[in-house]
Amino acid sequence: MNHQRRRIISAMAAAGLLSGIPLASAQAPVKLTLAHNLTPESPKGMGATKFAELVSAKSNGRITINIAPNEQLGSENTNVAAMRTDTLDLGSVGQGALLSVVPEVAAIGLPFLYSSLHEAWASLDGPIGQELAKKLETKNLTFLAWWCNGIRQTTNNKRPITKPEDLKGLKIRTPLDPATVDMFKAMGANPQQINWGEVYLALQSGVVDGQENPLANIYAGKLYEVQKYISLTNHKYEPTALIMSAPSFNRLSEGDRKLFREAALEAGAYQRNLMLESDQKFTAEFKKMASVQMNNVDTAPFKKATEVVWDEWEKKPFGDFVKKLRASRH
Questions:
Q1: What is the pTM of this model?
Q2: 33-80: per-residue pLDDT in tens?
Q3: Order of strands, edge to edge, in the sheet holding 190-193?
Q4: Do residue 259 and residue 197 come from a single domain?
């Protein structure tokens, strides 16, 4: 293409006269929104920011992703529904919201399935995660990557949790997740479902005695201000998925779709590493706090107390999937 022809095409592009012509220079800017439920400083929030930065860099600034943190656009369940109806572009959402469209996802949160983050990631990056991703894609959603919401610990204001019996009668906030509810019931607790944005106030006011979350979320949500005991129960792993409205994804060019998938995996590796580092970092931070008592837990009696949950879940319609997970436990 000679210099004069380039000048003509550039002028036409600037005037908006190249609509429908597949030239990168003629592609219009794209603005999208990504919602999540945590603070911008949390690993999930930082992963979302990294994803937006990568997409912008890979598209030379043509694609902008605005981040809406802290449940600004509603709960995770609301976000999933909005993506399915094409009123929200992207979401970084946890297991509790994903299971509303693919119930099998809940089984990833069954008690003591994974003993480490690396073990969980290997599973989700393999056939197990691929199977769940395919099911999500039948629900007007596009799956981009498995991120991480960590291995969860238990906090409360009554006493250290050293054995399952210590949970008896405690009102423990859990997400809208049947696996978590079932395991805490099996250990004698009284699970209460409260949206994340209301947890701090519920703990402060005594509506609930405690809650369970990864250390990173406990720190990011400043729950240590309203909780005295942190017990390292390591009772379950919870995945986060970066997903997109299928119509929104399909409006992208083929090149941009590839770009989004690459950015999702890169941001996911970054976010996972933040989650891994946060366990060590926040363990040290909490140990420094005079107002907080942290204790380790022998998980063996907790595993025994929650085997009944696995038994019951094998009777569900997706019992074969549960059996597959149970057989993979170490």
A1: 0.85
A2: 999 999 999 999 999 999 999 999 999 999 999 999 999 999 999 999
A3: 190-193, 171-174, 210-213, 153-156, 229-232, 293-296
A4: no
